[in-house]
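Thread: quick sanity check before group meeting

JM: Hey all, I'm pulling together slides for Thursday and realized we never actually wrote out the predicted structure for the chain we discussed last week. Dropping the sequence here so it's in one place. If anyone has concerns about the input, flag it before I start.
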Amino acid sequence: MSNNPYSALGLKKSATDAEIKKAYRKIAKDSHPDLNPGDSAAEAKFKAASAAYDLLKDKDQRRRFDAGEIDASGAEKQPERKFYRDYAEQPGHGYGNTHGYEDFGDMSDIFSDILRQRQAHSARGAYGAGFDARGADARFMLEVDFIEAAKGGKKRITLPSGENLEVKIPEGTSDGQTIRLRGKGGEGHGKGARGDAYVAISVKTDKTFKRDGDDILITLPITIAEATLGGKVATPTIHGSVNLSIPKGANSGQTLRLRGKGVKRAGKAGDQMVELRIVMPPEIDADLEKFMQGWGKSHAYDPRKGMN
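JM (edit): ok, ran it. Output follows.
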C-alpha cells in the first residue's frame, strides 16, 4: 500500500477538509472489519484510511507533510523512515474503537449505518446468532388543536418509512408535552426490541380560549342591556355552549366562574373563568341618545372617583 495518505483516501493533494472527511466516512462504512469478517484487504484499507485521516485532519500536520517536513507516520523526515503501512499497524490505530470518529460530531449516523449493514449481512447468513441490539428511538413533532389537547383524541402521523402511526392525545395534554409510544421506534437488530417513539406536542392557539394550568380563560362580550338588566347569556366552553347568569349592573372586567368547565386531568377538572366586556352598539341611534341624556341628568355618578 502507498505511503501517501492522499492515495489511501483516494484523493488528490488539493482535496478540501470536507472532501477528506467525506472520503474517510465512505471507506469507514464500506471497509469496516466488522462488516467484512475475514477480509484482510478490507481491514488493511480501513486501517490505512484511519491513519491517513488521523494525519490529514490536523491542519498543522497536513501542512508539514505537504512541505516534506514529516513523513506519512507523522515523524520527522529521516534517512530511514517508517512506511505508512507500519503507522497503520501501530497500537491505537486498530479498528476495535472509534479512532478517527471524534471529529464527526454526533457519530450516531455512521454507527447506525454499520448496525443496519450488520443486520443485512446477518439476514444473508454472513453473521451468526448473538448480535442483538435495541432499535433506535424516533422523535416527532405533532401539532394539535386547542380543543383536541384539552379534551383528548387521536391523531395519525406518517413515518419516513411510510408507516402510519396512531397517537393517542391524553385529555389535558399541554403545549410542549412529550408522549412516549413504547415499541414504535426503529426496528431492533437480531432479537433486540424495537425502540420507542417520542412525540412532542405543539398546541395551536385558539381565538376564544386560553389556558392557565387546568383553568380555561375567555372574554365574553355583552350588550349594554345585558350588563344593565342581567340575564342568561350563551357562553362557549370547551365542552359546548352553556347559559351563564349575568348579574344586574355587570361591569367590563368583572370575572365570573363556571366550575368544572376547565381542563380535566387525573379525574379532576379545572374551572372556566369568564371576563365580561361591555360592547356598545355599532351605532348610537336617536332613541338611545335621547334616553341617555335624560337619564344622565337625573342619575349622575363619577366612575373615576378616587383616581389621582
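AS: nice. The mean pLDDT is 81. The longest helix spans residues 40-56.
JM: adding both to the slides.
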